[in-house]
Design goal:
The chain is an alpha/beta fold. The chain has two domains: 204 residues, Spore Coat Polysaccharide Biosynthesis Protein SpsA, Chain A; 75 residues, no CATH class. Strands 1, 2, 3, 4, 5, 6, 7, 8 and 9 form a nine-stranded mixed beta sheet that branches. The radius of gyration is 19 Å and the shape is globular. The N and C termini lie far apart (45 Å). The C terminus is likely disordered.
């Protein structure tokens, strides 16, 4: 059995997924299985990967189910103690897996770690803004504002996902924000201060470009987290505070654009969550999910 399972979800990125796979095959650490989950691609991805078939486990979704479902399929089919994710438009430097395995050996109590990364936007290297700088250790509170864990940079033990759960397939976006909050409220997330991942952005097929009003998905995640009962008092108060802030900003945008019903709901949502313990908002709740044409960002 391999030491690390590398899970690569892809959808209509035939050329880029080849680069991603090649970066795994070029790792200094080679004791890994590579699981590519093709989420219903129609651009010849299956044919493009034919030369890799002896080196990867290829899984095909007959329809496009979303990146969360693709990652979850990879997790369920994986066998290793350690799991790493690699988005198909990103790639690794050769030392990435070796550095992380060595880190876990030096720190046997650590269950999750990530590396720094190099950002490429529209073909040019850019520096992350201050708000995107990654903390190390107890990262839960700063992660409430925005996601501070990159899937392509992380490695974790399988036991973490058994405890925290898998990616939420009801979320069309911000699924990583949701999972890393569920993980970081339970476990420290340590940082290796070397950029060992190259992340590419600026593509029109990225979820951040496809969906507007992204904070509604983060709001849903915060509500779920509060209702889960896993947070300690400090975490709970910080989560209520961030929920109130996000709802206030999102509501203001709704009202500005004449979306009175939606705006009013988000304005009172924090009070509802805090004062009605058994408040039941189903996973497909219209107020969270059915505003894909919203102009609110």
């Amino acid at each position: 059995m391999a030491t690390v399972s590398v899970i690569i979800p892809t959808f209509n990125r035939a050329e880029k997924v080849i680069r991603a796979i090649s970066s795994v095959l070029s790792q200094d650490f080679s004791d890994c299985e590579i699981i590519v989950v093709d989420d219903g691609s129609m651009d010849g991805t299956k044919h493009a990967l034919a030369n890799f078939r002896s080196k990867i486990k290829y899984i095909y979704h007959s329809s496009n189910m979303g990146v969360s479902a693709a990652r979850n399929t990879g997790i369920e089919k994986s066998t290793a103690e350690f799991i790493s994710f690699l988005d198909s438009d990103d790639y690794w430097l050769p030392e990435k897996l070796a550095e992380q395995i060595a880190f876990f050996k030096r720190n046997p109590k650590v269950l999750v770690c990530q590396t720094e990364e190099i950002w490429i936007r529209n073909g040019r290297r850019v520096n992350p803004q201050k708000k995107h700088l990654k903390p190390s250790g107890d990262i839960f509170v700063p992660s409430l504002k925005l996601c501070l864990v990159s899937p392509s940079a992380v490695m974790l033990k399988r036991s973490v996902l058994k405890q925290a759960g898998l990616f939420d397939e009801s979320l069309p976006a911000c699924e990583d924000y949701d999972l890393w909050l569920r993980i970081s409220c339970r476990y420290p997330v340590c940082l290796i201060k070397r950029p060992l991942v190259v992340r590419e952005g600026g593509h029109p097929d990225q979820l951040s470009a496809r969906y507007k009003g992204m904070d509604r998905f983060r709001i849903k995640s915060l509500v779920k987290l509060i209702k889960s009962g896993v947070l300690n008092e400090r975490q709970l108060q910080s989560t209520y505070k961030e929920l109130s802030k996000k709802c206030r900003i999102y509501s203001k945008g709704c009202l500005k654009r004449g979306k009175v019903r939606e705006g009013t709901f988000y304005l009172i949502l924090p009070e509802l969550v805090e004062n009605i313990p058994n408040l039941n908002l189903p996973p497909g709740s219209k107020v969270f999910m059915d505003h894909e044409d919203s102009e609110i960002r």
